[in-house]
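INTERNAL AUDIT FORM
Audit reference: QA-55
Scope: verify that the stored structure record matches its stored sequence.
Auditor: D.O.
Record contents follow.
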Amino acid sequence: ATVSVLNWQGCPGVFVVAGPTMSKSFCGRSLSVVNDFTPDEQYHLYIQTKELKEAVKNGGDLTRFKITDPNKAVYLIFMEDSTRTKESFRNAALFHGCKMNVFDAASSSFNKKESITDTVKMLCGYSTSQSLFVIRSKLEGTCTWLDKVVGAYCQNQLGVPRASFLNAGDGRHEHPTQEFLDEFSFLEQQKWDRSSVHLCLVGDLYHGRTVHSKADGLSVFRKVKVDLIAPPELAMPEEYVDKMVKNGYEVTIYPSIDNYLATTEKHASIWYFTRLQLERMGEKVLGRETVLRQAVTIRKDHLAKIPQDSKFYHPLPRHQKHPVLPVYLDNTSFNAYDAQSVNGYYTRIMELALLGGAEVATYTPTSVSPPREVPNFIEEMPSGAYSTSQKEIGNVAGIRPISNGVVLDHICVGKDVRRCWKRITQLARIMNADDEEMSTGVFNSTSSPECVKGIMFFPQHSGDLLSVPMLKKLAATSPEMTLNVVKDDKVTQKFRLHMPPRIYDFDEIDCTNAACISHKKNHEHAMADFVCLTRTPPVFKCVYCEKPHKFNEIWATS
């Protein structure tokens, strides 16, 4: 159940999201990132996959695992090379008996600079039922964007069921379908014990999206210990280490396998390797390739120091000339990567089954999420007399006291005068205001004389400054400023504008990640969208690529 409490002029206040335990369906949802499925939902996927494997092995009835509508279409759109992910999804679609289309990106209208948004909207119109898209792209956040814009298009304009999108890898961001087959493989190894897991991640942790996905995917286990093994040049990005720590994982970092095995700490029994993507690093690794490879490649003398019940995993493919898992390991008990690869077929059958509405797509959660509150960012304050007697700092053109209108006060309070002026200029641009309708200045703060603040005066201003969209823009641009409505020399309304929980749909903002689908230079016309991670200091996360940004970094024109 969702309860919306609307305050002054319909501004969203507190949203309480909770409700009784009830059956849920996956049908029509998308899998863009690991967290699109809760840990309980992921476990439902794993248990159903386990039952599917057993039914196949024992010759059982597979009906409940299959999509029964033959008009549903599965499109495989791979704009980067793939063998295992692409072929496992192709065979998974054939298992379901759906219409299956392998979209050849190399010979498509992408070569005519068509956006992926237009391509997918067009393909949705070629089916009378639901379309499911499996997409690999260099642009991070592609499936999140398509789910947002094409899902509504299917329902509102085509009159067909909402399309679903499965992320088969987007840049160095995430690979949730690989993550789910990995977690399924770990659970098999642990005989379905979810109480704890101890594993080490080895290799190129910087570029490897399969290891980035583990920052959230390992949450299916109740207690997690992760050992990160990589030289500094290939270390896990700080944002993913921080996410692991935030999720309650115990994290330890080592520069090499030798260093790890030399410690007296208990070593992990699950080893997860990734290939080195040195081609992405160019001149940064010139002359160091051999050293970097040696740091994360298993040698025969390592094996005696590793617990003999350990298992080695790898998303594959291995490097032909420089494999971090040499081929002599293939016929040893350490080899779990071959079975891991096969699991990709079964987990992807189940992912299509859930999103495509097979019988197993409905389940009852074992727990209910606690109520979640989104704070109101517009605070009404006591009103009274308004003074414009503060001593001006710098040159102010056309300052004049006002008897009626709107005053924006406490803009960018601090010690930096130039920063105040920069913020005033930014606000004027966002409000499309010119010198004829406003006057501006930077003044000493009466409450903190060592600080300065910006003030903007709008005499006889119309009420459009008080609209909800404009207030959101003002709060996002200059949080903690005040807005004063002046009438006959008195403040009749006063509001403090706090940092909003979300900043979106402004032309003035942009993600700084050049690989993000919302980055303006990628011309996909995905409007930038940020959600607040922390308020002190203010940090915002891009909805698409999930890159964290400091508040000032999101303003492309600031």
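Auditor finding: record pair retrieved intact. Confidence is low (pLDDT under 50) at residues 1-21, 388-398.
Action required: none
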